[in-house]
UniProtKB/TrEMBL annotation:
<feature type="domain" description="DUF4240">
    <location>
        <begin position="5"/>
        <end position="121"/>
    </location>
</feature>
<protein>
    <recommendedName>
        <fullName>DUF4240 domain-containing protein</fullName>
    </recommendedName>
</protein>
<dbReference type="Pfam" id="PF14024">
    <property type="entry name" value="DUF4240"/>
</dbReference>
<dbReference type="InterPro" id="IPR025334">
    <property type="entry name" value="DUF4240"/>
</dbReference>
Length: 155
């Protein structure tokens, strides 16, 4: 894959790798994604990382994470992505749908490490990846009501 992964391909890959049954912390999903991406090419890993970062960035908004720590907010946003496209779009459309993930501590931290682990398996090297959008909590200045370049806590 020498072209960027489009949004449909990203969500299809997540669905294709979703294990049957319960996967409380998305460990099964992360393992299956890593296995699929580690088959190569490296461009597919980079494309997946870009889509994942973009999806997480779009959820990085004050109305979703105002009461959560940075890590809790990141892992909870990852859980929304891991839940699939319908759940993700529902949260984007109605921020109240984020509450059950946050209140019940539904986290999917392993999803965050998939691109790095797949890259390491493919190349034997650590990945100093960079994506267009940062996925760390409070990265989206507009989503937090600040001007770009502001500090995390500034309004």
């Amino acid at each position: 894959m020498l072209r960027p992964m489009d949004e449909d391909e990203f969500w299809h890959l997540l669905e294709a790798c979703r294990p049957p049954g319960a996967d409380p912390d998305a460990e099964g999903l992360a393992a299956a994604l890593e296995e699929r991406l580690a088959a190569g090419p490296v461009a597919a890993v980079a494309a997946f990382a870009e889509r994942l970062s973009t999806a997480l960035f779009r959820l990085d908004r004050r109305e979703l994470g105002g009461e959560l720590s940075g890590d809790a907010f990141l892992y909870t946003r990852a859980a929304v992505v891991a839940a699939g496209r319908p759940a993700y779009l529902a949260v984007l459309a109605d921020p109240a749908r984020f509450a059950p993930y946050a209140e019940e501590f539904v986290w999917a931290e392993p999803l965050l490490y998939v691109p790095d682990r797949a890259y390491r398996r493919l190349t034997g090297e650590e990945w100093g990846r960079g994506t267009v959008h940062g996925y760390e909590s409070f990265s989206d200045a507009e989503g937090w009501g600040r001007q770009a370049g502001g500090t995390s806590g500034a309004v």
